[in-house]
Amino acid sequence: MVLPALLRRSVIRRSFPSSAAPGGESLHFSIFCERKSTFALSNATETVSEQKNEKGSNRWFTLPPFTATVNGSALGNRIMNGGAQSEAETSTTAITALKWVFRCCPELPRSLVQKLFRLRKVRRGSSMIENSECNLEARDQLKRVAANDILNIGDKLCLPISVQVFPTERAPDCCNKEEKKFIHSLVLYKDPAILAINKPPGLPVQGGIGVKRSLDELAASCLSYDYSEPPRLVHRLDRDSSGILIMGRTSTSTSVLHSIFREKTLGASKHANHVDREKMILQKRYWALVIGSPSHTKGLITAPLVKMVLDDGRSEQIMVVDNAESIMPFQHAITTYKVIKSHHGYTWVELCPLTGRKHQLRVHCAEALGTPIVGDYKYGWQAHRNLKPFPHNSHKNQGKKQSLPFGLDFESGSIAENNPRLHLHCKHLTLPDVSCALHNDSLDHDCSRLERLELDAPLPSYMQRSWDIINN
């Protein structure tokens, strides 16, 4: 199977004579293939050809012919099901004309591409249209194509040469050298398919109202490396939590990872009482410091969650519900836990979420175990009312705090201080080698034999200090 390849565009401004506007300028650009990633648009070099008629008007750009792409969702399902293949499963995925233009020309504004389809300015031609001048008869053979039309192997899309495109140079970086260096220091692991980042506490994962800097924006600016497409989020961590965050480096690998994370939650929800955590292909292990001590040293929490809207829709809170009595829609949520160490009213626990629900670990600790996480003032505010700093002198001997970009602070917030920060960290993550799966993307390949990636993220400084205090 031919794998996709990245495209790099260069825009050359030239002047073309025109009877309507003598001396007027028109933008002319060429799309060149430069293969560096295993998962881009094609291994073969393709050149966008400029199609001209005899009068020198109505010129077209022809995109590279559509080639088969990996069905990321189906591949992810096979990985999670131990290589089992369903009857309806195919190794390739259908793609619309709109998505193919986006993939071939990522620098074109999306609004412009969508407008071209609305105005029916995009045409589809067969492979007989080569890199040569296109006369009137050949041009008339081009058929209009809608945005949602499914492409066939070998189809070529033609765009008007007169489209106004943005310059191909990358947008100015939003980070200075110090900030770039810091973002690069967060990378725990990188291969052609994924990025693993040690998310710092206090940095939002995704942009939104009131968010100035987010990790997805910073990763797009600093961690694209030689790829034309930015890394994409696969899952999320709360703003104040920290630890391993997985991002897909291509649209295909992101689709595979989304499927793996989704199947993990669905599988655990269906077989809540028969989950063998050790055999799970995807495993996440969090470390948390909680107030108090669970009644058992280890156990399984199966407490469904429901979202409650508060303050006339201005905020929301997740709560544990009894699924037998609840009339509200709820989500199955399953967590395993194990006590690591207890000391003077605090306990370090290892939490393994078998499902991926919003605030799942925080709510399970606070409501199901009755031991809220240190620094969780949303779900454990009552336990924090009388919480006093742990008597310890280590913080008094600390030197000058390290200045970090984006206003981040890793030093303050341990249990030896007032108002400790959230002590929840994704410490360890195990997942299948998606890069290898994509490299052997045939349905005949045995996905059950994939190697596993073992990732580990060090604790932030304030949590490490709390760990040292408890151990002393």
UniProtKB/TrEMBL annotation:
GO terms for cellular component: mitochondrion. GO terms for molecular function: pseudouridine synthase activity; RNA binding. It is found in: Mitochondrion. Residues 194-366 form the Pseudouridine synthase RsuA/RluA-like domain. GO terms for biological process: enzyme-directed rRNA pseudouridine synthesis. InterPro entries: PsdUridine_synth_cat_dom_sf, PsdUridine_synth_RsuA/RluA, RluA_PseudoU_synthase. Its main location: mitochondrion. Pfam families: PseudoU_synth_2. Keywords: Isomerase, Mitochondrion. Transmembrane segments: none annotated. It comes from the Eukaryota. The keyword Isomerase applies. Belongs to the pseudouridine synthase RluA family. This is RNA pseudouridine synthase 4, mitochondrial.
